[in-house]
Amino acid sequence: MIRLEPRPQPSILWTYASPALALAITVFVAVFIFIAFGKDPVRGLSIFFWEPIKSPYALTELILKATPLMVIALGLILSFRANVWNIGAEGQFLLGAIVAGGLAVWVTENQIATQRWAFAPIVLLAGAVGGALWASIAALCKDKFNANEILVTLMLVYVANLLLSYLVFGPWKDPKGFNFPQSIRFSDDTLLPRLFATGRAHVGFALSILLSALMWIFMFRMLRGYQLQVGGIAPLAARYAGFSSRGALWTALLVSGAFAGMAGAMEVAGPMGQLTPYVSNGYGFTAIIVAFVGRLHPVGVVFAAFLLSMFLIGGELSQSRLGLPSALSGVFQGLLLFALLTCDTLVNNRIRWVGAKKSEAHA
Amino acid sequence: MSATAPPPRLALRHITKRYPSVVANEDVSLSVAPGEIHAVLGENGAGKSTLMKIIYGAVKPDSGEMLFEGRPFFAKNPRDARAHGISMVFQHFSLFDTLSVAENIWLGLDQSIRLDQVREQIAATAEKFGLPLEADRPVHTLSVGERQRVEIMRSLLTQPKLLILDEPTSVLTPQAVEKLFATLRQLAASGCSILYISHKLDEIRSLCTNCTVLRGGRVTGKVDPREESNASLSRLMIGAEPPLLLHRDAKLGAVALDVKQLTLKSDAMFGTNLDHISLHVREGEIVGIAGVSGNGQQELLAALSGENPRAPSQSVQLFGADIASAPPNRRRSLGLFFVPEERLGRGAVPVHSLAMNNLLTRHHELASRNALAWVSPARSRSLAKDIIARFNVKAGGDSAAAKSLSGGNLQKYIVGREISAKPKVLIVAQPTWGVDVGAAAQIRAELLKLRDEGCAVLVVSEELEELFELCDRMHVIAKGKLSPSIATRDASVELIGEWMSGLWTTPVAAESTTA
Amino acid sequence: MNELALLIAAMLSAGTPLAIATLGLLINERVGVVNLGAEGMMLIAAVCGFAVAFVTGNQWLGFLAGAVAGACAAALFGLLAVWLNTNQYATGLALTLFGGGLSAFIGIEFVGKKLAEQPKYDWPWLSDLPFLGTAFFKHHPMVYLAIFLAVAMVYLLYKTRLGLVLRAVGESPDSAHALGYRVRLIRLFALMAGGALCGVAGAYLSVVYAPLWVEGMTAGRGWIALALTVFATWRPLRALMGAYLFGGVTMLQLYLQGEGVQIPAQFMSMLPYLATIVVLVLISRNPTWIRTNMPASLGKPFYPT
User: How many domains would you assign to chain A?
Assistant: First the structure.
């Protein structure tokens, strides 16, 4: 039988090999799903792993979807490492989209003259403030009333969704929009500058790479970042050292909220160009998987964001090309996270094969 | 023993158990007669616990055999062991705080008897063995000694033929130890065999009729402890005489730490409130606080270290400055350092390297002093290397995870980290708890050296021997109250034992606290 | 008057899936495990229950399918969180995300399908009582089962040895292990029982309450049920009360809209979620109240030695 044996030190090899093995397991299961539905597994896999990178335009689409995932996940890793479970990034994303979108609508309606490069920082900041404020509700509930942040942030997702829905069905509805639930289109000058000649990828991507570097520095070269992480893995040690747990809570929620909100701003001021009820595409939840697959590491999430971006694009393509529901992407995302959590056992444990000399009474 | 004696109650033959990094037991044999009180003596890490877990069915040996009442038998699991009459009282109690005494005992019984029958049996057994217990009290309201009674009662109700006790006296006052021994002798006289695991030489000599000594997983002696001296037993146990500590006369300086009428409500669920605690520690002396665990030590230490900054203003003073509500950082910058009882998870972050763990208490030196507080990994590493070298820590370098070190080595590292910060006041909780004799001796010697250099040292410990060895003066804490202090040379184990039950007389003539 | 009776009836009906799910999660948490996958389990169970009820035409087989699906999903969670000691929160989230995707994937064929007409559930004589009949005696049997479950769980937890063992495991798995109880096995079975109940709750939504399949139709009820375990301070009867309270909040929005209250529908729909936050804040405000009631090992991993 197999027995798990704790390692004295976490295995560095498995820290990196575990996501790879998890991906391999997911692909393995995916092959079975394709076969079960009578689809050619090679074609199925190519839709997920080749189509998104085969042309420059496809690559820009990959970047476009990876950008919000990366930005949200960069905030989440800080939060998770501090043992603050902000799982409502989706809601903070939506609030960022609402605030940034509202600003863009206001600028457009009042015909205020702007330029893309000048307005971009403003709209991104607006989104960050919106996300941070939304997250601060959870921080306040936790800090003052000890209310579980998991449940509060998650409930706020539903509230944010309904708020967005109210706005685009109600006061912000485009009067010339044939009664569709959507705002007016933002003026061109309020949109984020494009990054390449082709495709819709925007400066947000460059910013997200910069944020990744900043996050690395904060986590591994600054005392505040270290304090936050100690609070997450060993709260008693943090208390012993004198690191403030309230400070960690607020920092974690405000930063992750701001990042998610900024991602929301990028989405409305980037590819969307207007507010609709479908701003999100579930980015806030997919980013949770990005954070884990990226080992809660600021560099890891860059790669993970591209992988999950492939999953999202592959899901859409498998609907149009294979006639499989796009929910397939969600199945694969869940599978990947399950497989990853399983494989991560190997980081802190090794497998020992115990001879069957005495069968133990384990079930 | 005559040749016609019945078969031994328990016989172990050539038991060997290896773990990946250590051999816990190698070729261990021992034999216990019916009604015998048999000691298993060894220091921390000698393999006593593993051996007992093998007998109790919690661990499978790699090789060897076990005979129970003459028949080959290995318990499949603890439940199986109990069904065959082998029962164990653990050092760390296996009790459920929110459940009642009767429910706790019921959970340890395998027969399908009803709860009210359990209550009757408790009453009957309590009478017979002098173990008073109230069946319906929730366990969290009991003292540590009473909790141990629940554990023993749970064992007795299974009608054991062999009772194993793992370091049972570490939680008891000397007087309570005597009562326990009376119960055990009575139990042995009724035919039950007892395996008594301990590292306390005096107790084994007064209670046991046979003794197997373990060192490094091997049997190093089988003796009748009544015919041995502490020194000869110690030689068998650690291979040498116990190291002697050099204790110079104290050169007292100013009052460094001064606690005045500290009264504080505990914030733990079943904690102890502190009640008008006063004490002071001068430069150049070691003051000890004795007491059974759970009498307010945790709460007092948290108030002194700054982990709990809610002490009333002026109740904790450092060189005359009020630090009652100062956070730990600030206390450290004023020269007060602290070694907590739990090494992993409190004194050190288990998964972080030793170098990173330096940042816990030494970040003032290791991070830049500007608002950004940059961390320099290189400086952390070189500090770690220094501590490892100076305090002789066995570790896989400065990048070894804290949890990869043995208890003794991690404790040496943590104590070293705090000592090398050149503290003016050092507070140490359980300096040598669960540490092997060599490391313990080294840590105690370092603390004495620190005192000779003029540091004020406060040691909180449950080990009386340790306190008698280290301290110049001693207090006793009981139910959140602190006894007056007594010079170690005037104190006796009996007196401290009485005080541990809260029975000290009116304050000894109060010493002046101001220099 | 009759309106009030209808409101009470609607409240009981809306509270029933919350009650059953909360009771299931309560078993999990009593043995010390937080399963954030409640939403995912309910969704998988809802689609499985609907599919089986649709294909067989028998709603009871639908409930059975929901229970089995919920238990299987919980077993998957248990193998990871209990045996491999993966982070309980992360694993639960994985289950919720996976369940959302899988249920949408399976359910694509059942979108827009309708179940066969359901029988009316009338009690002889009682259902004809004025007011009381409408309010209390015209419900689906599951509504009464939920009440029975809550009472049965009180008996189980506080009056039987099995319940004592469950509470003991949640209080201190290490002590239970030292006494020879198979902590991981007990936790796994408790998780599966809880998963089965969440499954029944999910199936109730798609088979009785809606009755149809829509992607993401649980609409956060799994999360609200998780909040309700805290609200109930881990006691079955309080869980039942909490569930009806939330059923009432859900119904209140419909009622107010029916009365022509001029508040946008979206704000009314926010009520259950906002109420959850308010309830959490009110109940968690007093930390000692939570700590004295919470199973001591809740959310902490257990490593047998």
Answer: 1
Report H helices in chain A: 12-36, 41-49, 56-81, 89-109, 116-145, 149-169, 204-221, 223-233, 235-241, 245-267, 283-293, 300-317, 328-348
Positive/negative CA dihedral, C231, C235, C238, C243: positive
Selecting from 3.90.25.10, 3.50.50.60, 3.40.50.300, 1.10.1060.10, what CATH number does the domain B243-335+423-515 have? Answer: 3.40.50.300
Which of A221, A240, A241 is facing B374, going by the closest CB pair?
A: A221
- Whole-number pLDDT of residue C117: 73
Nearest to C175 among B77, B96, B106 (CB): B96
C-alpha triplet A353, A358, A362: angle, nearest 5°: 75
Please check whether residue B98 touches C, CB under 8 A: yes
pLDDT tens by residue, B177-232: 888 999 999 999 999 999 999 888 888 999 999 999 999 889 998 999 999 888 88
What is the distance in angstroms between the Cα of C125 and the nearest Cα belonging to chain A?
43
pLDDT in tens, A327-357: 888 899 999 999 999 998 888 888 877 654 4
Task: Say if the Cβ atoms of C277 and A156 lie within 8 Å.
Answer: yes
Question: Whole-model pTM?
Answer: 0.90
Q: Does A352 reside within a domain?
A: no
**A334/C87 CB distance under 8 A:** no
Nearest residue of A to residue C225 by CA position? A151
User: Using one digit for the tens of pLDDT, what is the confidence trace for C217-232?
Assistant: 999 999 999 999 998 9
Question: In 10 A of CB B271, how many CB atoms?
Answer: 15
Query: In the sheet that B37-41 helps form, which strands lie side by side, from edge to edge?
Result: B86-89, B162-166, B193-198, B37-41, B210-215, B218-223
Residue A134: which domain range? 61-295
Tell me the pLDDT band of A361, cut-offs 50, 70 and 90. Answer: very low
Does a structural domain hold residue A234?
A: yes
pLDDT at residue number C257:
74
Complex prediction ipTM = 0.89
Give the residue from C93, C108, C213, C283 with the most A CB atoms within 10 Å of its CB, the best one to mutate: C93
Cβ-based contacts of A137 with chain C (< 8 Å): 277
- Lowest-pLDDT range, A4-8, A235-239, B98-102? A4-8
Is the per-residue pLDDT at C15 higher than 90? Answer: yes
Residue A328 within any structural domain of the chain: no
Structural domain spans, chain C: 2-293
Residue A360 lies in a domain: no
The mean pLDDT value for B366-394 works out to 91
Q: How many CB pairs under 8 A join A and C?
A: 139
Confirm if C49 and C66 have CB atoms less than 8 A apart: yes
Give residue A354's pLDDT: 65
pLDDT at C1: 63
Residue C84 at interface with chain A, using a CB cutoff of 8 Å: yes
| Model confidence band, residue C127 (pLDDT cutoffs 50, 70, 90) | confident
Enumerate the β-bridge partners of residue A353: A2
Residue B241, both tokens: 């005489």
Interface of C with B (CB under 8 A): 161, 164-165, 167-168, 171-172, 174-176, 178-181, 288, 291-292, 296
C105 and chain A in contact, CB less than 8 A: yes
Q: Which helix (H) or strand (E) holds B27?
A: strand B23-32
Q: Is A277 on the interface with C (CB under 8 A)?
A: no
- Test mutation, A11, A12, A239, chain B, max B CBs within 10 A: A239
What CATH code is assigned to C2-293? Answer: 1.10.3470
Q: Which CATH architecture has domain B10-238?
A: 3-Layer(aba) Sandwich (3.40)
- Same topology for domains B10-238 and B243-335+423-515, yes or no? yes
Measure CB to CB from residue A10 to each of B342, B351, B375 and give the nearest one: B351
Helices vs. strands in chain C: H and E counts, helices first: 13, 0
The domain ranges of chain B are: 10-238, 243-335+423-515, 349-421
Contact B328, B308 (CB under 8 A): no
Quick: pLDDT tens for B65-111.
Answer: 999 998 998 888 888 898 899 999 887 788 998 899 999 999 988 76
